[in-house]
């Protein structure tokens, strides 16, 4: 990490200051950053490397894309406090206004790509959704289940388009979505920006090997994910690993059914789950398990199960 004097030398180039300001607004890929700055991607990459070396920017690879975000708050927070004070004394926002306009164009490009993707897949999603109770009722049931206590640090596994983060992120102390698909994560960024949550963190990761530490979450959600899993019990155990003492895992998925066409048409690896099987998965992961609710009203029943990590017991010293 750089010393304070070296940080100021790092920011001596106006382009690097612009990069930090843009990343303060939202995560951007290297290509998007080059588009906003009006510079070549190799040149922007050189500036980015200097900022990464100084701990002011972080880099994350998702498939063939590289996304950039600000470094740790304790490092960049004081810097922005200082920049904000200077801006108030002697405002000079010409470049900032131009960058903001180009950033809006990037956001519009993302939204247009999202709309094209949704339009191409809307028929499949609508066919599946028509088989079960309305999604609004499922989401209301999830909200009831989460209302028992504060959400705390929220992790949504298989976040897809970020719907769970959009719904429950505002009540969380931190919100993070994980998905294996870079395409879905790009869609999630659009949706979360539209929901006023551009700072919510999104990461690419596998549900069987999550890029997160033990005890790093208070609430974990697996919403309509496990029926795609070849090894659902392993995925539940990995989700449970994230829970701090007293934390809870909410699993929302189909009850056992016999719609075999979903296996071939929509890549469902499992045709739902019985209560017995899901409770066993949760208990084997070291959680206290229970059925929250069965949501009937269509050909498929949606069930909500919960697993809670027991509170740590204090050792009694004789």
TrEMBL record:
<dbReference type="InterPro" id="IPR036390">
    <property type="entry name" value="WH_DNA-bd_sf"/>
</dbReference>
<dbReference type="InterPro" id="IPR050508">
    <property type="entry name" value="Methyltransf_Superfamily"/>
</dbReference>
<dbReference type="InterPro" id="IPR013216">
    <property type="entry name" value="Methyltransf_11"/>
</dbReference>
<dbReference type="InterPro" id="IPR001845">
    <property type="entry name" value="HTH_ArsR_DNA-bd_dom"/>
</dbReference>
<dbReference type="InterPro" id="IPR029063">
    <property type="entry name" value="SAM-dependent_MTases_sf"/>
</dbReference>
<dbReference type="Pfam" id="PF08241">
    <property type="entry name" value="Methyltransf_11"/>
</dbReference>
<dbReference type="GO" id="GO:0003700">
    <property type="term" value="F:DNA-binding transcription factor activity"/>
</dbReference>
<dbReference type="Pfam" id="PF01022">
    <property type="entry name" value="HTH_5"/>
</dbReference>
<dbReference type="GO" id="GO:0008757">
    <property type="term" value="F:S-adenosylmethionine-dependent methyltransferase activity"/>
</dbReference>
<dbReference type="InterPro" id="IPR036388">
    <property type="entry name" value="WH-like_DNA-bd_sf"/>
</dbReference>
<dbReference type="InterPro" id="IPR011991">
    <property type="entry name" value="ArsR-like_HTH"/>
</dbReference>
<protein>
    <submittedName>
        <fullName>Metalloregulator ArsR/SmtB family transcription factor</fullName>
    </submittedName>
</protein>
<feature type="domain" description="HTH arsR-type">
    <location>
        <begin position="1"/>
        <end position="90"/>
    </location>
</feature>
């Amino acid at each position: 990490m750089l010393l304070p004097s070296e940080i100021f030398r790092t920011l001596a180039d106006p382009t690097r200051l612009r990069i930090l300001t843009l990343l303060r607004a939202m995560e951007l890929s290297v290509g998007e950053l080059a588009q906003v700055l009006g510079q070549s991607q190799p040149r922007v990459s050189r500036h980015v490397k200097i900022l990464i070396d100084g701990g002011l920017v972080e880099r994350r690879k998702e498939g063939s894309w590289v996304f950039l975000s600000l470094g740790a708050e304790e490092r960049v927070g004081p810097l922005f406090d200082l920049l904000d004070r200077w801006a108030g004394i002697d405002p000079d926002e010409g470049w900032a206004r131009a960058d903001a306009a180009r950033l809006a164009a990037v956001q519009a490009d993302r939204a247009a790509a999202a709309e094209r993707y949704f339009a191409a897949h809307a028929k499949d999603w609508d066919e599946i959704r028509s088989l079960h109770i309305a999604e609004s009722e499922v989401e209301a049931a999830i909200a009831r289940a989460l209302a028992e206590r504060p959400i705390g640090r929220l992790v949504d596994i298989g976040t897809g388009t970020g719907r769970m983060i959009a719904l429950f992120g505002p009540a969380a102390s931190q919100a993070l979505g994980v998905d294996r698909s870079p395409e879905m994560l790009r869609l999630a960024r659009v949706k979360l920006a539209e929901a006023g949550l551009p700072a919510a963190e999104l990461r690419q990761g596998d549900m069987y090997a999550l890029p997160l530490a033990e005890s790093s979450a208070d609430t974990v959600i697996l919403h309509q994910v496990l029926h795609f899993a070849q090894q659902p019990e392993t995925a539940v155990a990995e989700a449970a690993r994230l829970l701090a003492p007293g934390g809870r895992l909410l699993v929302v998925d189909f009850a056992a059914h016999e719609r075999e066409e979903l296996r071939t048409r929509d890549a469902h690896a499992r045709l739902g789950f019985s209560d017995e099987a899901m409770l066993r998965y949760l208990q084997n992961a070291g959680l206290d398990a229970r059925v929250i609710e069965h949501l009937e009203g269509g050909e498929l029943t949606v069930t909500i199960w919960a697993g809670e990590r027991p509170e740590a017991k204090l050792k009694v010293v004789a």
